[in-house]
Amino acid sequence: MNKLLTDVEFKQSLVPFDEPYKATKGQLRGVLTYIKTKEGYSVLSNYEDDEWIFPASKGTAGLMKSKLKISFHNFHNQQQREMVKWTIFNEIKNGNNVSSNRTTRNNLSSFFQWVNKSETILANGLTANSAREYVKYVNQQENMNTGLLLSPGVKVKKLRALEKLYKYCNHFDFVKEHPWVESSAAEQAKFVGKTLKDSIETPKTQIIPEDTLHSLCKYTKSYIDRANDLLSYKEMLEGLAYKDSYKANKVLITNGWDQGLRELNNELLLLRDSCIFWILLTTGMRIHEVLGIKRNGYRTETKNGEEFYYIKSVSEKTYEGETEWIAPKITTEVIDILSRYVEPLQSKLECDLLIAKSIGDNQEIHRLEYTSGSIALTVMKDQNNKISILSGDAITNFRLPNLCKQIKSQWNLSSHQFRRTFANYVAHSELGDLRALKEHFKHWSLSMTALYAANSDLDQELYEEILRERIFVEDEIKFDWFNLDTPITGGYIANKILDIRKSDEAVKSFPNRESMIKSYTCNIPIRATGLGWCTNDDDGCLGGKCEQCEHGIVDKRNISFWKSMMIQQLELSELKDIGESGELAVQRGMERCVNVLTTLGADTNAIKREFYEVANGS
């Protein structure tokens, strides 16, 4: 048990901010990380330690214990070790989080490993020449997983470590010159101009494929629907001796579960994973934000007779602190399921907290108080059965991919894919295309961007991502229209696009085809009608006649709607009591569907054959 420091002792013991020359000699001393309790201050790390330990509250929810540490053990050169320490110390003062500081430490480690391979560079220190050589080295480095050269984004982080070294450590003998006067790490990494613009504007994260998402939703929703039964079986076993599988199986069989304890435990894990899946899918939250949700961590608000649900958590990514996310009702339901799921673990946590308090284990007290109330508790079997928050890495790398294995999908599901998938679905819905899952997203009938823009307590970075995704989706649709291989039909605007894309003269007026398309389409508004795309920005809509309207465009994305309409006409044609006017209406409707589908490249004869085969039971 560490001795607690009083307020006076603590202030006297803090590492001083303004003694860089002591740092150069390895003589800087003082308290660096600590936990504040009611009784005083419990020290976790001193500046002079070769491993700095941070309290759980300084990391994100679900961060592994090992990632709350920054180690300097592998810096065998004392001056290099002191430079890295002083750099990280200053970054901490500037408010950088543990993960960012670990990245800086790793990038400085890579730099010094390179330095130590050359006696000349080691002797000359950080100069413009040595920095130039390091840039060449970084430009030739390959990603260990892919074998490809490092991306500009990764390179710029490696090179920024040198800028930080110069900024904070210019009083160390090793640091002689600015690494690149009148330049920057971004410029050295070629992370400027079009490369930077493309990195910002072009989404790098994959969207979960629609067929995979449908299968995952169906599979995981089946667990949500069975949650009460599964949790009831789980609760029957509470109080039984640990690992007493014989008694457990006997209780389960008596109460109707004949698949054994092991299978029940597997089903319960899949229930938990399914709940996390639905929170990620329906909110756009990051995994650490999901794992930071507390029991009853949502509120309800009624506006104009409609219910709105807001999920509460903490976002560390953009230092926003307490934040809210709009969600459908199913999200609150799975939060309630998880709250019930972790009740026994919460009870054990409270017992562990009493024990920690009785022995004065302040670090454990702090960790348990930070963990308490989470909907994502787990037992750490490799740490003497301690109660902790689920690891974000474990969810991302193992549990979510396991859901894909359950549906026999090859897709490599990852937590960060949900945020862009969410933004993409919102973007489509705001264009009028609700796509799938609309029964769970009733609030998407309103403008999601308007809701986020009107409430500063909501995740504003997610709002910006939705706006970016909408622009991306619009551009994707419009660029398709100008592709020579893309069939489109419609009125005046569709014919105008067909004329432009055939014209070599139109392209010659612009630097490239991309510039031409952006110029022609930048002021064209679009919204989905199901049957096509409306480019009219006023109320002059013909009502479901997009292929005839001067503002309408019909493309391959609309084929399924037209096939459904054609099948409806075929069904009507089978009726014998619709009269002559009804038969004429069906004939006109059929001709309309055949014309559009043929233009879009669909085989209307095959649609008819399939219809009659089903109708005749063959």
TrEMBL record:
Residues annotated as transmembrane: none
InterPro entries assigned: DNA_brk_join_enz, Integrase-like_cat_sf, Integrase_recombinase_N, Tyrosine_recombinase_XerCD
One example GO MF annotation: DNA binding
Keyword DNA-binding tagged: yes
Superkingdom, natural source: Bacteria
Keywords: DNA integration, DNA recombination, DNA-binding
GO BP of this protein: DNA integration; DNA recombination
Recorded family membership: Belongs to the 'phage' integrase family.
Protein name, per record: Integrase
